[in-house]
Amino acid sequence: MSKRRILVVDDHPLVREWLTNLIDQTSDLTVCGEAGDAKTAMQVVARERPDLAIIDLSLGGDSGIDLIRAIREQFPNVTMIVLSMHDERLYGERAIRAGAHGYIMKRESSTKIIEAIHQVLAGNNYLSRELTQLFAQKFVSGSGGDASPMNVLSARELEVFRLIGQGYETREIANALEVNIKTVQTYCTRIKEKLKLSSGAELLREAMRWNDVSLVR
Known about the structure:
Largest sheet: 5 strands, parallel
CATH architecture of the largest domain: 3-Layer(aba) Sandwich
CATH superfamily of the largest domain: Response regulator
Low-confidence stretches: none
Distance between the termini: 39 Å
């Protein structure tokens, strides 16, 4: 029986090494490539055509959501799972809408991670009970259910907001996202308007607070 081929995308080398060892120890799976950023990930996907990509949402200055969307558009036969520290209640729906077929937290056991891989490779979605219930509530209410104010932000605005919360300066954000400073300033203005924040200081404070609670420690 041929092994299913997996791409591991995470900006932390130790995480990539751990995942690679975990996957390669599974009899029907093998890692065909690794990447620490979105550009490298797209190159590996184009070269190796993996069956599945495991993707972290935080890839340095890159957005895992944008990477998922790009893979879906250019390589629709590649299935994807998000493996992240970011709380699924805040990012799960965005990831699934972008094209991911599953979402699992890094705090989960190795057994759960392998289970998620097998489920997605079998053609199913893999969602936690909590995320499944959230989607069900939204479907029943027909109103979007999740009251998180972050839902008003676009994927790129949310990425800028996250980087602000991590202490990035405007120029650093521009370099990380490969845009000019004025574009970042425009994003900041839109974020303040959408979140009803009155100043840059308030934006920074809220971004730092949200960044802390969005990570499951």
